[in-house]
Every structure is written in structure tokens, then in C-alpha cells.
What does this fold into?
Amino acid sequence: MFRKSIAAVVLIIGLNSAVFAVQSNLDESIADLAHRWAKASYQTPDNQKEASFRDLIATAQQLTQNFPGKAEPLIWHAIVLSTAAKVNGGLGALGMAKDARDLLLAAEKINPASLDGSIYNSLGSLYAKVPGWPIGFGDKKKAREYFEKALAINPKGIDINYFYGDFLADQGEYAKAAEHLKLALAATPRPGREDSDAGRREEITHLLETLKQKHGDQLASK
It folds into this structure.
């Protein structure tokens, strides 16, 4: 009986160690992909971006295959595809956007709150930017609903406040857009995501300056 108890304890420890190792490998792989995404997005010349994202898509696909049943690889695969769609443009962009949406919906079924609301933030961005019917699946109402879901999970996040601010600016809600962009600038830095944060802050600052130049009177009245 005593030997069986020891064997059971050893088995549990072994299983826990295996789970920890898998999670550790996943975290490392996600971190590497995030750094490569930031480099492709913010540090790569425009004429080289398409090739960079082609490589990133292959890496993201492999990551999804290596860690089945995990939400994080699906989310990052979607992020890579949606960014590549923006970079590439053309007819192929809509196909990538649809694939990204499907990956995010699959991740939602696993863990809706994964990566601090990134599922809903990314879905909001897709529904906001993709053309509506009959060309695409874009829907401003759905976009707003997804952004609000993301804000409920991560109200002070840099990405959600930037993308929601960008959406609000497109909708003509300039004062509210500026509020969220300022929240994005004030967001707590993310450890290990310094390269992404730096690039995002440049985007936020540029959009805020554009709003001030074009709609400063509306911002001042609030």
C-alpha cells in the first residue's frame, strides 16, 4: 500500500512537471513570435514586410499545430494573419481576415479571457476594418460590441484602448477617441513586450496628433 502511494505521488509529480514543461515551451514560443511580429511590424522596411509576414504565418501555423487545444497560439496566429492582410492588401487580404476571425472564434471557445482580452480586441479590429456585406463580414455594430467586451476584461490595456480609439475616430467620435488614446499612452509597460509597446506608442501619438490637427475644436470643447 505504501509503495502504491509513493508511486502515485511520483506519477503526479511527473505529470505536473510535464505540464509545466509544455507551458514553459509555449510561453517561450509565444514570446519569440511576439518579438518577431514587433520587428516585422515596426522595424522592417515596407518593401520587405510581405516576405517577413509570410515567414511569420508559417511559424504561427506550426505553433498552432504544436500546441493543440491552447488558445494563445490561435490568437497569435490570428494576429499575424490580420496584420499580414493589412500589409498585403488585395483580394488575398480578405481570405486571411476570414481565417483570422475563425481562429479567434475557436480560441474564444477555449478561453475567452486569454491574453487579457486579445480575442475580443482582435475581433473588434477585424469587424471594424473589413468591408461589409456583400464583399466581406465587416460590421461596425459587432466591432463596438467586441471592443467593449475587451475593455471589460482589460480596461487599461494599451492595445485595446488604441484600437478602440482608432475605431471611435473612424466613427467621428473624436473626443471619446482621444480619451481612449490617452489611456493607451498611460498604460503600464508590459514586461517582455517593450518592442511592441514602443511601436504601438508611436502609432498612438501619431493618431492623437492627427485628431488634434483635424478636430482640435471638438476636443477642446470636451
